[in-house]
Amino acid sequence: MTADDLPDAPEPAEPGTTRDPRSAAFYGRRKGKKLRAGQEAHLVRDLPQLAIPLDALGARPLAALFPHPVASVRLEIGFGGGEHLVHEAGRHPDIGYIGAEAFVNGIASATSALAARGLSNVRLYGDDVVPLLDRLPDASLERIDLLYPDPWPKRRHWKRRFVRPDNIERFARLLAPGGHFRFATDIEHYAAWTLRLLLTDPRFEWTATRADDWRLPWDGWPGTRYEAKALREGRRPGYYEFRRL
After folding, report:
1. Which of the listed residues 10, 73, 135, 243 has the most CB atoms within 10 Å of its CB?
2. pLDDT single digits (tens) 72-105
3. What confidence score (pLDDT) does residue 23 get?
4. CATH superfamily assigned to domain 3-13+24-244
5. 122 phi and psi, to 5 degrees?
6. How do the domains of the chain map onto residue ranges?
7. Binding annotation for S-adenosyl-L-methionine
């Protein structure tokens, strides 16, 4: 597959530029059903130790966010209920994980799961992720995961999709050379949209060499609740990975 085979997407931004910050506004719900008492208790007791204050970034190396040395730092944007984030943190205790999620119920689920497993290599950010991205140091991340983001299927809402030129510019700044951006979706048009943008960006290389590289989940993939729903409804996910050159 080449970029010429894919539908149109926004033109990539020139390197070193971003769009008007107002175009990066968060879209979506902030809170769903009422939290359980145990989740509320974890938010009060545990979230303050897990949360990342923006004003703490920049003064120290990113690895200093964690209470023990970490070999590298990874970011998951929009982690939902935290299934993948918590699973990965448990698999790799020597890696620091930052999870960003603006949905309060997702933050509550992740906080509860982290407390239950006693994981200390995760920090959480519970707001629009763009200000966080803009405060993180250059080349500070080994990997960025964006898993099943809202596809905004109506054409008039495509500008709200998270994969767009200004955010790709942010990914390019934040990923160290050889770092990876991983993207999963069950929406064919969003997959094609993302491929169009990344295949035409000279800073990234699609790692797939055969169809199964994007049809099959990554090694150690635990699945997510959203993915299970997509499979029940007959939508086939794709798993796309791009290397920062």
Report:
1. 73
2. 999 999 999 999 999 999 999 999 999 999 988 9
3. 45
4. Vaccinia Virus protein VP39 (3.40.50.150)
5. -130, 140
6. 3-13+24-244
7. 76, 101, 128, 150
